Amino acid sequence: MEICVTKNNRKMETTFQSTIVTSHISRIERPSIIAKFMTWCKGQEKNRLGWLGGILTVHGCVLTPITLFAIILSGTYFPFYIAALVAMGLAVVTNLAAMPTKVTIPLFFFSVIIDLAIIISCISMGFNLAATQI
After folding, report:
1. Burial code of 4-21, b = ≥16 C-beta within 10 A, e = fewer?
2. Which of 4, 39, 114, 129 has its CA 20 to 30 A from that of 93?
3. Of 60, 44, 49, residue with least CA distance to 111
4. pTM score of the predicted model
5. Which of 84, 79, 75 is nearest to 133 (CA)?
6. Neighbour-count burial for 95-125, b at 16+ CB within 10 Å, e otherwise
7. 3 state SS for the chain
8. What value does the CA radius of gyration of the chain take, rounded to a whole number of Å?
9. Do residues 45 and 101 make contact, with C-beta atoms less than 8 angstroms apart?
10. Please, which residues bridge with residue 10 across strands?
C-alpha cells in the first residue's frame, strides 16, 4: 500500500508494508544423519578399548592384507600402495594417539572406504598374474 502526500510543493512518499507474524509457526529441528552419527560416536567412549582392538584387528589383520593382495595381483600400481598406507596409517595412528572415539570411528570408516575403493579399482583393472612382482 502506497500513500503519496504533498506538502509545500514537495512530494512525500510513504510506503506501508504489513508484517507477517510467524510466531505461531513452529519448525521442527531434526538432526542430520551426520549429527546423529557423531552423537553415537561420542556415546561409544565407554567402549573405547573394544573399538581400539576391533579397528586394529579388522584393519591390520584383515582389510590391509586383502588390499595389498589385490594391488599385487592387479600389476603393482604404486599409487595404490600409497593410498593403502595412508588408510592404514589413519586407523593405527589415531588409535595409538588415544584420540577420542568421535575421531577414531569416523576415520576408521573413512579408511575402510579408501581400502574398498582400492580393491574395486584393482578388480576393474583386472588381475594380471604375469605382471605381479612377488
Report:
1. eeeeeeeeeeeeeeeeee
2. 39
3. 60
4. 0.71
5. 75
6. beeeeebbebbbbbeebbebbeebbebbeee
7. CEEEEEECCEEEEEECCCCCCCCCCCCCCCCCHHHHHHHHHHHHHHHHHHHHHHHHHHHHHHHHHHHHHHHHHCCCCHHHHHHHHHHHHHHHHHHHCCCCHHHHHHHHHHHHHHHHHHHHHHHHHCCCHHHCCC
8. 29
9. yes
10. 7
Contact assessment for residue 12 and residue 6, using Cβ atoms and an 8 Å cutoff: yes
Q: Which amino acid is at 49?
A: L
